[in-house]
């Protein structure tokens, strides 16, 4: 009896693999390493004393999937694999639809053939699009996405709903993450963006360590508390725990359900800078630039449904997110290449 984790060598996937192994689950990882290093899985083994079976392969490769399902008694699949850079998705839409949408179809077909019916999908707050009022609630209509990346997540959710309706054996949960940040408390695992980070906290951490001169704050004139963008940041280990709660819930439901994984609290960019400075003791140089294309002013989760139905809520506040990010960055200035 094992859980297949696609994209399990990546940022959120590796932290979830760790949490699964710590709970005593058998784990099989499939990852093509397009945005990850196998070193993340070595760190998981170091921390847990347990090893996940690893297949360096692609979710679009049906023969590879048949081998994985043939060689292990898989009972459920947690599907992280995909491309995630919003800006890049505008430049390379076909790659995003191929990996995120077509790849998921190949995976679902392989599951159907193998008789595996429990599925958790990494969705995103971006599916609420640009017109939804905050806080975002799961009952709101989704769509109106502003990038191929966001549209790919929205499309997969539509496919999953139709698929679950057509085949009542399937239980499917889409987890809509808000803004995952932070690292494992050991400082041995964390987020390892290749090149210039797109996301706020990895960028702040690289400024703190001296790899980047200053942070560019995208927009100082939003209608928010201090003019900068507001988001709902959530510790990656809380995200990992959310998957364990969703796994348990899958066994009790049929069909498709979506849940927000967020804290319900919004912090501005400048609040994030201040909190990081407090945790690290390092001053972060920044300049305020024009808004970044495609960014929304402010959004955060209504976190009630996950609390009521999954019995899950965040356990780690902003201080812990900052402490763990700084700890990881200091100990691994070049990420997993250190
Ligand atoms: P990540 O890039 O670190 O992890 C994704 C993993 O999937 C990587 O290890 C990559 O090598 C692998 N992968 C990509 N395409 C693949 C393919 N075709 N076959 C096999 N493996 C493949 O990203 P992450 O931050 O851990 O995100 C995990 C999931 O959560 C993604 O689906 C992402 O879109 C979603 N998500 C992330 C965030 C975020 O802010 N990090 C927010 C919302 C949703
Ligand atoms: N920001 C800066 N400077 C930077 C990077 C970001 O000011 O160098 C600002 C952004 O303008 C935004 C906030 O910091 O106001 C957060 O930006 P991120 O890029 O960290 O995160 P986003 O909210 O833009 O996007 C993230 C993921 C998406 C996902 C979305 C919702 O990258 O994949 O959260 O879950 F869709």
Mean pLDDT: 97
- What can be said about the biggest beta sheet? 7 strands, parallel
Helix content: 40-55%
**Beta-strand residue fraction:** 15-25%
Bound molecules: nicotinamide-adenine-dinucleotide, uridine-5'-diphosphate-4-deoxy-4-fluoro-alpha-D-galactose
Tally of individual helices? 11
Radius of gyration from the CA trace? 19 Å
Class from secondary-structure proportions: alpha/beta
Q: Please report the total strand number as a whole number.
A: 13
Element order: H for helix, E for strand: EHEHEHEHHEHEEHEEEHEEHEHH
Poorly predicted parts: none
First-last Cα distance? 35 Å
Give structural attributes:
338 residues, 11 helices, globular, binds nicotinamide-adenine-dinucleotide, binds uridine-5'-diphosphate-4-deoxy-4-fluoro-alpha-D-galactose, two-stranded parallel ribbon, alpha/beta
Describe what you observe in this structure.
This protein has 338 residues and is α/β, with parallel strands linked by helices. Helix content is 40%, strand content 17%. The protein contains eleven helices and 13 strands. The chain has helices spanning 11-22, 39-48, 62-71, 86-91, 93-114, 148-166, 200-208, 236-250, 269-280, 304-310, 318-331; strands spanning 2-6, 27-30, 53-55, 74-79, 118-124, 171-177, 179-181, 215-218, 230-231, 233-235, 255-261, 267-268, 286-289. A seven-stranded parallel sheet has the order 3-2-1-4-5-6-11, sandwiched between helices. A two-stranded parallel ribbon has the order 7-10. It is globular. The two termini are 35 Å apart. The relative contact order is 0.14.
């Amino acid at each position: 009896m094992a859980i297949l984790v696609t994209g399990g060598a990546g940022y959120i996937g590796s932290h979830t693999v760790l949490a699964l192994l710590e709970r005593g689950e058998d784990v099989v990882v499939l990852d093509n390493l397009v945005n990850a290093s196998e070193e993340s899985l070595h760190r998981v083994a170091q921390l847990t004393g347990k090893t996940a079976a690893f297949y360096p392969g692609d979710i679009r490769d049906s023969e590879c999937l048949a081998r994985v399902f043939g060689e292990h008694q898989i009972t459920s699949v947690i599907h992280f694999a995909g491309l995630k850079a919003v800006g890049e998705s505008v430049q390379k839409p076909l790659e995003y639809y191929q990996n995120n949408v077509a790849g998921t179809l190949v995976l679902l077909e392989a599951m159907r053939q193998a008789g595996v019916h429990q599925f958790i999908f990494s969705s995103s707050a971006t599916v609420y699009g640009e017109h939804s009022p905050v806080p975002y609630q799961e009952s709101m209509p989704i769509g109106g996405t502003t990038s191929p990346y966001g549209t790919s997540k929205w499309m997969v959710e539509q496919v999953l709903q139709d698929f679950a309706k057509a085949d009542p054996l399937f239980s499917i949960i889409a987890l809509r993450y808000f803004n995952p940040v932070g690292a494992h408390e050991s400082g041995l695992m964390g987020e390892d963006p290749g090149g210039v980070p797109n996301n706020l906290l990895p960028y702040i951490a690289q400024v703190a360590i001296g790899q980047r001169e200053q942070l560019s704050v995208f927009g100082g004139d939003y209608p928010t508390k201090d003019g900068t963008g507001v988001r709902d940041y959530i510790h990656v280990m809380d995200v990992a725990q959310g998957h364990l709660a969703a796994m348990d819930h899958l066994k009790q439901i049929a069909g498709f359900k979506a849940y927000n994984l967020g804290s319900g609290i919004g912090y501005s960019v400048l609040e994030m800078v201040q909190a990081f400075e407090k945790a690290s003791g390092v001053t972060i140089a920044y300049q305020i630039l024009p808004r970044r294309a495609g960014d929304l002013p402010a959004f955060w989760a209504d976190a009630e449904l996950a609390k009521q139905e999954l019995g899950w809520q965040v356990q780690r506040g902003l201080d812990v997110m900052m402490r763990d990010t700084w700890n990881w960055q200091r100990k691994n200035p070049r990420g997993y290449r250190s």
